[in-house]
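Could you help me review a protein record that somebody else here produced? Do not assume that whoever made the record got everything right. The record follows directly below this note.
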Amino acid sequence: MAWNRWDRSPRKSPPKKSWSPEEMKMIGFVMSKKINIGISPDFKHDLHHWQIDIKIGNGKVHTDPNRYSDEDVHENVIKYYKYYYDKYNKNSE
C-alpha cells in the first residue's frame, strides 16, 4: 500500500515567542493556581488564525470566541495571564 502525503490532515506550527522574566512570573503564578492558557489552530478558517483555550482547575476548557493572527495571539494570551494574575495575586496591591 502506497502512502499518499495528501491523506494527512493540515499541520500548523505555532508562532514563536520569547517571554520576558516578568511574563514568566505571571505565567508561573497563574499555572500554580491550576489555570492553563494555550493556543490551538483554527482549521475552520484560514491557516493563519488561532484560538485561545483556557482550562480552569475543574477540567472544563473555555475557548475565546475570537480568532487571532500569528502576530496577535501571544499578545492576547499574555493579557489573559495578566488578568488572572491580577485577580488572584493579593500581594500585587
Notes: The mean pLDDT is 84. The first strand starts at residue 35 and ends at 41.
